UniProtKB/TrEMBL annotation:
Major facilitator superfamily (MFS) profile domain ranges (all copies): 23-472
Protein's recorded name: MFS transporter
Gene3D superfamilies for the chain: MFS general substrate transporter like domains (1.20.1250.20), Multidrug resistance protein D (1.20.1720.10)
Keywords for this protein: Antibiotic resistance, Cell membrane, Membrane, Transmembrane, Transmembrane helix, Transport
GO cellular component: plasma membrane
Superkingdom of this protein's organism: Bacteria
Any one GO biological process: response to antibiotic
Keyword Cell wall biogenesis/degradation: no
PROSITE patterns per record: MFS (PS50850), SUGAR_TRANSPORT_1 (PS00216)
Lineage: Bacteria, Bacillati, Actinomycetota, Actinomycetes, Kitasatosporales
UniProt subcellular location: Cell membrane
Topology term for the membrane: Multi-pass membrane protein
Start and end residues of each stretch annotated as Disordered: 479-505
MF terms in GO: transmembrane transporter activity
Amino acid sequence: MHISVPSSTTTVEGRWGARLWGTLLVLCGAMFLDALDVSMVGVALPSIGSDLDLSTATLQWVVSGYILGYGGLLLLGGRAADLLGRRRVFLIALGVFAVASLLGGLVNSGPLLIASRFVKGLSAAFTAPAGLSIITTTFPEGPARNRALSIYTSCAATGFSMGLVLSGLLTEVGWRWTMLLPAPVALIALVAGIKLIPRSAGTRPERRGYDLAGAATGTASMLLLVFTVVEAPEVGWLAGRTLVSFAVFAALLTAFVTIERRTRHPLVRLGVLRSGPQVRANLGAVLFFGSYVGFQFLVTQYFQSLVGWSALETALAFLPAGVLVAVASTRIGPLVDRFGTARVLAVGFAVLTLGYALFLRVDIEPRVGAVILPTMLLIGLACALVFPSLNIQATSGIPDDEQGMVSGMLNTSVQVGGALVLAVVTAVVTSDEEAATTPAAVLDSYRPGLALLTAVAATGLLLMLTGLRRRRPPHSVVVARGEQAQSQPATAPEDVAVPEASAVR
């Protein structure tokens, strides 16, 4: 499936037309909203719990409900974009996001608020892969796409950073404003998207078909995995409910893989995972985002619980990282053009590991100049290098009619990684924190979690270093299908060095 781009937008290799810029800005706006929404709600949780009289266990589902809807339905969202039309899926989901945002700010009960958050996560599970696949099918592989993806990811970082600051300000007025703010922004993006995003025709169902069994088992397995991981720290990793849930997840996943191998039109074509760069991109997303979510959780606890900083002061401490990402991400495209994604990712994970290791030197007295600020700058640089490169590597060499699928896979890896690593880090920290009676002991209980995050980042570095090995191009394209797999040459080298891929084109 290809997006039919009007003639005014086809100059993507050189100068971009006004409509092309408008399309990109609408897509960036949706990603900005996703990041804004994730970061804003965290600071507002104490006020929400007090106003709605929610227990801590119930309150966590204000965050976890969003994660469950988002992480559990991304595979389905990505494939729906391929089959039903990316523009249609994106705009409908964006409209649902706006309505859910409005309702979330008006409800007066915990269950209704959690339900609105789940619906927002569900809608984001469709806008995220649809938006990314619109970019990758509108901009040709090479410098133009790399530039577009760099701008796209910088908007995500900007949204996350602004969300941290805005949440501190808006919560002072009232927590409902943190829920309501995304609604008018989403509505503006929806109106602009209707006018600017070029029409696309989804693959006809009679020609490609729908994998209903795969959709059911794949979605159920992802929903159950995210739910189990989120609940495990509360009910216990070895509790009967947790073990049974993991067993059912394994059974559903096995059924999903079996269905995908046998069906004629799979939800996820497993052959794409024979590609080394594709596997590294998805595993890298798990390790990268998972470690960052865990780091943010621990550092927020350190700033507010031990140091005594306010929510706004905590948000401002994270701000240098967000500003650096927003500024640097737009300049990553030329680096990828020159050095390839494998080298940029290796450097990014090395910087990330160094940043986490540096924060291990933190003390009861905040060492802003020696530890906190350098750590935030290193992490900001790492995010600027890693996130655009993961998107570029995951979508390189993939046919247009599977861009939604690989986008859904990548975003699923991001969300599952965030939920999994955060749950493990929480379990590690709380096991020691319960016995801590002094501030120094509490800080010491955080250190194993920080060390674990450093090890996760180092694992990502080792994984990316395996992509630096030069190999002979395979005889056939990994992403090719059917008889084409016997005749098409590879379209990208092992490390997805864009100049070489562009030469083939």
